[in-house]
User: Fold this.
Amino acid sequence: MASPVATGTAPSLSGTKVRSREPSEHLLRVRTWLRRPRLDAAIARGLGRPGDARLALREAQLVEPRQRGRLARRLEEIVESPTRLAARGSRAPIDRRAVEIARPVIADLVLLLRSRQPVEARGVALAWSLLTDPLSPLYEPDERGSFGGRRLWRQSLEVLQALRPASAVQA
Assistant:
């Protein structure tokens, strides 16, 4: 079979844009991906820097339906029975008593994340922090009179409030 280039039937590249993304956009995406933990921490703290393209891109990524679904699945795994989690590998042990206390709030988080309602990037970043921070009350063993259950309930409630857009909170 003859090559399209050899036969002259290959599409002309002169004057047409072959790729929809420019190299600078690719570079922005790579830099954003490499700095996700730092950007997520800044978003969770509520640091807004107008004109920061990486921060804006990361905020947009956090509120995408796919990211929200991943987060909702992870939260659902947390509230599932301990036997299912035990088979999942070498994850940090979950404080089951704390999860039982916070279960209603965590269920509300999952519902909001799965809904079509808009959510704030700060709330998504806080929810990921709740799951990934080793000092989170989610992983804190309820020993020596710890108040892990109350802390997890309180922090989950803060995440839920941070997820809701400011206009929805005031209404």
